[in-house]
Design goal:
The chain is an alpha/beta fold and 393 residues long. The protein has 2 domains: 146 residues, Aspartate Aminotransferase, domain 1; 241 residues, Type I PLP-dependent aspartate aminotransferase-like (Major domain) (Aspartate Aminotransferase, domain 2). The protein contains 14 helices and 17 strands. A 7-stranded mixed β-sheet has the order 4-12-11-10-7-5-6, sandwiched between helices. It has a 4-stranded mixed β-sheet with strand order 1-2-3-15. α3 runs antiparallel to α11 and α4 packs parallel to α11. InterPro entries: AcOrn/SuccOrn_fam, Aminotrans_3, Aminotrans_3_PPA_site, Class-III_PLP-dep_AT, LysJ, PyrdxlP-dep_Trfase, PyrdxlP-dep_Trfase_major, PyrdxlP-dep_Trfase_small. One of its GO terms (cellular component) is cytoplasm. It is an enzyme of class 2 (transferase). Its EC number is 2.6.1.118, 2.6.1.124.
Length: 393
């Protein structure tokens, strides 16, 4: 029975029914193998069936599955110590939740309470989630129009333009939020110097700076934190996706004085910090930092982008290659739907952004052999598309 009968049409779906996965590969119900450059929209960060994660979940299940944060739990304590030990300097406290959108919602409340201000400034091209607060900070009108009015007092500055930001903030601005690398809008990398300039401006104006590293964090870009590329630390950092190896989890890292502004009961999460997620999170963080995944992301990302640049020289359909580590965007001159379907035929799963951008977010365990196969498949499909367009032309 098709899932669509029960789930409606909320998702753009592809004709693949995934049965199992291992590393950077998945298999469908018919046994066909795919190289997974989709990675669950970046969630499969440490690879499918990561042994550390699998073992941690199995061990925790035999102890206890749920412990609300009104009680203490040693697995949660260990996860918190592990996460804070890796966090950017000064971010020594954390609220645990269940998703990227929830991490953003917590950040909004913490920043508003701490500053006593209501104004919020996000970036044009931003994507922060689809719950009401996160959606209010998301730029693309197609996600928002049907649900207005959203949260008030949100303004948008041009990404990468410090003067635009300077003109957008005012005396009631509580925070500025941005992605060091914008994901949903097509892997847009912050210009050099921009994050440092934003940090300086926020400090001058007494405004909190929030980084959304839900997609870009935890080694995805070849550094543990995407903001490390620009030696800039936020006041609040939002995480999710691969933080627990595929188990739902979100985290909002904050300075201790910011979290201290919150009173008991003003924010909480029933499932946040549950022992299953925390056990998986400990294992995922250890895998990222101890199994060479950050280094592999940097190395494989370079190989991937070099190969894509060679394809760009061969195929005029490719307009631009951009990204860092294994967070890569390939902007095309035409819509990519047919390209994605062709890649599926060739045994490759890949994402898109908008209508004309291929988005590549494979597990950080991907190998050079896999990348070579992906590049060959993409070369094949682009050649077919060009031939088709030449015939039609």
């Amino acid at each position: 029975m098709s899932e669509d009968q029960y789930m409606g049409s909320l998702y753009q779906r592809f004709p693949v029914t995934v049965e199992r996965g291992k590393g950077a590969h998945v298999w469908d119900v018919d046994g066909k193998e795919y190289i997974d450059c989709m990675g669950g929209y970046g969630v499969a960060l440490v690879g499918h069936q990561n042994q550390r994660v699998n073992d941690a979940i199995k061990e925790q299940i035999d102890k206890i599955i749920t412990v609300h944060s009104s009680l203490y739990n040693k697995t949660r304590e260990e996860f918190l110590k592990t996460l804070i030990g890796l966090a950017p300097k000064g971010l020594t406290q954390v609220h645990l939740n269940n998703s990227g959108a929830e991490a953003i919602e917590a950040a909004i409340k913490f920043a508003r309470k701490f500053t006593g201000k209501k104004g919020m400034v996000a970036m044009k091209g931003s994507y922060h989630g689809k719950s009401f607060g996160a959606l209010s900070l998301t730029f693309n009108p197609k996600y928002k129009k049907a649900f207005a009015p959203l949260v008030e007092k949100v303004s948008f500055a041009s990404y990468g333009d410090i003067e635009s930001l300077r003109e957008t903030i005012d005396d009631d601005t509580a925070f500025v939020i941005l992605e060091p690398i914008q994901g949903e809008s097509g892997i847009i990398v912050a210009p050099d110097g921009f994050l440092q300039d934003v940090r300086k401006l926020c400090d001058e104006k007494g405004i909190l700076l929030i980084f959304d590293e839900i997609q870009a964090g935890l080694g995805r870009t070849g550094r543990l934190w995407a903001c490390d590329h620009w030696n800039t630390t936020p006041d609040i950092l939002c995480l999710a996706k691969g933080i627990a190896g595929g188990v739902p989890m979100g985290a909002t890292l904050v300075r201790p004085d910011i979290l201290a502004a919150m009173s008991k009961g003003e924010h909480s999460s029933t499932f946040g910090g549950n022992p299953i997620s925390c056990a998986a999170g400990i294992a995922a963080l250890k895998s990222i930092t101890e199994d060479g995944l950050i280094e592999n992301s940097e190395k494989m990302g370079k190989i991937f982008r070099e190969g894509l640049e060679k394809l760009k020289e061969k195929h005029t359909m490719i307009r631009e290659i951009r990204g860092k580590g294994l967070m890569i965007g390939v902007e095309m001159k035409f819509e990519v739907r047919d390209i994605l379907m062709g890649l599926i035929r060739e045994g490759v799963l890949m994402l898109y952004s908008g209508r004309n951008i291929l988005r590549i977010l494979p597990p950080l365990v991907i190998t050079e052999e896999d990348i070579t196969k992906v590049l060959h498949a993409l070369d094949t499909i682009l050649t077919e598309e060009e031939q088709k367009r030449n015939v039609q032309g």
